[in-house]
Design goal:
single chain; alpha+beta; Glutamine Phosphoribosylpyrophosphate, subunit 1, domain 1; 2 domains; 8-stranded mixed β-sheet; 5-stranded mixed β-sheet; 10 helices; 13 strands; 29% helix; 22% strand
């Protein structure tokens, strides 16, 4: 597989101007060059993840070095975060739906066979990524949802687990209390007693902490020395969502996609926007057409930004998306990149030089 040089790519990109209508998207060559990351020039085995995945990419890299298939390696990698009660975005400790129930989604895809497996709205199961892998390995299906996914997991030996930790439960209760000043749930500043049962004194008064909120996801993609690629995305989804809501994470082509001839991609952030743009499939397609991984991520974000203008509630006064999406892309030769809608995001990567966080490229400055 051949790839254009950075010089030829930038020259071709300078002629593009399809999104001129979006305010503050600058296409000068120096701006585009500044967006390019060192990962676009990397070659060799690599694993890439969202910013909460430094341990995940390190695990995936180590397991691949031991000869484990990349699809097993990435699932084991994200399993570390799924089992971490302090990460409120995934698995145990994930923030629940509006009923206080943790519902999890995950998808996994194996490049060499082009098989995929996914579960959505699964309850009481700690490792949805492992269940998604079982769907890939043991069935002719791709996606199993709800109670069927839970029963499928139990049939394969997964033990039901209470995923709502005290920390997540308190966050949910605070969300219920703050929903409306006119309901029967007292806001923190309306209560005569503190949430932990002490009578409130005047010294206890103050500004309540903000209610935790997250889109909640981890993505991990990896390639081995032979150029075989696999990826996984797993999530607790949108905090306090309508029960049964499914975001992009378990949808092949949206929250995660793999083409072993090209590479893999994944997404975190506003899932509805990613679904409506087939975000991960589009990123892989852009790489197949010659874009570098970082540029492929930026191209998808530009598409999302353009389409978001059609829904006024999703853009600010300058026509820019009022939400964030982060894209991750990994080419089969080990080139990697990530980009966010807004500045300030980071991603995790593991190469022969170690596991670390790197800053994401971005479309808009905060």
């Amino acid at each position: 597989m051949t790839h254009p040089s950075r010089r030829s790519f930038l020259a071709a990109a300078a002629a593009a101007g399809s999104l001129a209508a979006i305010p503050k998207l600058v296409y000068a060559e120096r701006t585009r060059a500044r967006r390019l990351a060192a990962g676009d020039d990397h070659r060799g085995p690599c694993s890439i993840s969202s910013g909460n995945g430094v341990r995940a990419v390190a695990k995936a890299r180590d397991r691949i070095r031991e000869g484990v298939d990349p699809v097993i390696a990435v699932v084991e990698g994200v399993g570390i975060v799924e089992a971490d009660p302090n990460d409120t975005t995934v698995g145990l400790g994930g923030l629940p739906n509006e009923d206080g129930v943790v519902e999890l989604d995950s998808s996994v895809m194996h490049g060499p066979t082009h098989k995929a497996g996914a579960v959505a709205s699964i309850r009481d199961i700690l490792h949805p990524a492992q269940v998604a892998l079982k769907v890939l390995q043991t069935t002719d299906h791709v996606l199993i949802v709800g109670e069927g996914a839970r029963r499928f997991a139990i049939a394969h030996g997964f033990e039901p687990t209470n995923l709502l930790t005290p920390k997540a439960r308190e966050a949910w209760l605070r969300w219920k209390r703050s929903n409306s000043p006119n309901d029967d749930w007292l806001d923190d500043d309306q209560m005569d007693w503190t949430p932990d049962g002490r009578e409130r004194r005047s010294a206890d008064a103050g500004t309540p902490d903000p209610v935790p909120f997250t889109y909640g996801t981890i993505h991990c993609g990896a390639t081995d020395a032979a150029g075989n690629v696999s990826a996984v995305t797993t999530t607790s989804g949108l905090s306090y969502k309508i029960p049964g809501r499914v975001g992009d994470s378990p949808i092949i082509g949206a929250g995660m996609y793999v083409d072993n001839e090209i590479g893999s991609a994944g997404a975190t952030g506003r899932g509805e926007a990613v679904i409506q743009s087939c975000g991960s499939y589009s990123a892989v397609r852009h790489m197949g057409e010659g874009k570098l991984p970082t540029e492929a991520c930026l191209a998808v974000l530009e598409e999302i930004a353009t389409r978001s203008k059609r829904q006024r509630r999703l853009v600010d006064d300058e026509g820019r998306p009022n939400f964030n999406v982060v894209m991750y892309a990994l080419r089969k030769d080990g080139a990697y990149g990530s980009a966010a809608m807004w500045s300030g995001a980071s991603f995790a990567v593991a190469t022969a030089d170690g596991a670390r966080r790197e800053p994401c490229a971005h479309l808009f400055e905060r």
